[in-house]
Design a protein that fits this description.
Elements lengths: L2 E12 L3 E12 L3 E5 L6 H8 L7 E6 L2 E2 L4 H10 E4 L12 H11 L4 H14 L15 H13 L5 E5 L7 H16 L3 E6 L2 H7 L2 E6 L2 E7 H5 L2 H6 L6 H11 L13 H12 L1
Parallel strand pairs: 3-8, 3-9, 6-7, 7-8
Antiparallel strand pairs: 1-2, 1-4, 4-5, 9-10
Helix pairs in contact: 3-4, 3-5, 4-5
Length: 279
């Protein structure tokens, strides 16, 4: 599968020589949902900031369409039009008086007319199901609404890849389900999604692929089921396997689920499996 965006042997250290990325390699395939999964403090946010050009590595390369990126002003602007980033703290990205004004900032900076920008704003607000909040002051939004407004601002730029830092952090279970539904629709429309998380259950249930991350490097990358069923790798990354995957694998070991049958990926699918076994 051809990579749209790649990191090759990235190194980065923070002031004082604190290492953040240590020879990291990562490949992002077009049209996939990739979870960068690792414990807190592993360097996942630092990686995202490199993937959209906010940080520059001390060594290594970022490749876009197979070509090394450039860090000149015009090149960075073109890069960020293709690669959107949503930070974990939405307040760090919301600064305009109203939601609509905030979401329109990016399209207007692209040089679009007010009419074209308004069309993109309406489209993004609808995609995130917050059209009713268009005139709401950003400081009056709930935490979950701020997250969706920040994502709408990125979506309005129509990026090929959307990077999300811990998108479910701080959300209750209902808000998380709602947000993942929205992200699934974006993926179905062709947006490549890359998100960081320390939640193995979220990664398994939502992502196509996993990049297992630890101490500034990718330990392994591959399909979610393959990576998350490797106990040795998970132990190395200081993570436990997702419960629903464990349930499915145990059903296979007991002969209750055929090798050719798909493993459950969601709570609903796990409950269906249990009901089928009971019957």
């Amino acid at each position: 599968m051809t990579a749209l965006l790649e990191a090759k042997s990235l190194h980065h250290a923070y002031p004082g020589g604190v290492p953040a990325l240590q020879g990291l390699d990562l490949s992002i395939a077009q049209g996939r949902k990739l979870a960068i999964l690792g414990a807190n403090g592993a360097g996942k946010t630092t990686l995202l900031l490199h993937l959209n050009g906010s940080l520059r590595p001390s060594a290594g390369d970022i490749l876009l369409d197979g070509q090394p990126v450039s860090y000149g002003r015009a090149a960075l602007a073109a890069w960020r039009r293709r690669i959107g980033l949503v930070l974990q703290e939405a307040d760090d990205q919301l600064f305009a008086a109203s939601v609509a004004e905030d979401v329109s900032f990016g399209p207007l900076n692209l040089g679009l007319s007010e009419e074209e920008a308004a069309e993109r704003v309406a489209e993004a607000l609808e995609a995130l199901r917050i059209g009713d909040l268009a005139d709401r002051a950003t400081h009056m939004l709930s935490f979950g609404q701020k997250k969706r407004a920040a994502i709408a601002g990125a979506v309005a730029m129509r990026p090929e890849i959307l990077l999300l830092d811990e998108p479910s952090a701080g959300l209750d279970s209902h808000s998380t389900v709602h947000l993942l539904s929205v992200l699934n629709k974006l993926a179905a429309a062709g947006t490549t999604l890359v998100f960081t998380t320390h939640d193995v259950d979220l990664a398994y249930g939502f992502a196509d692929d996993i990049a297992l991350f630890d101490q500034g490097r990718v330990l392994a990358q591959g399909r979610a089921e393959t990576i998350l069923s490797d106990d040795a790798l998970l132990k190395q990354a200081r993570l436990k396997p997702p419960f629903i995957l464990e349930l499915g694998l145990q059903a296979r070991r007991l002969g209750l689920l055929a090798d050719a049958d798909p493993l459950p990926r969601s709570r609903a699918e796990a409950l269906e499996l249990l009901e089928a076994l009971k019957a």
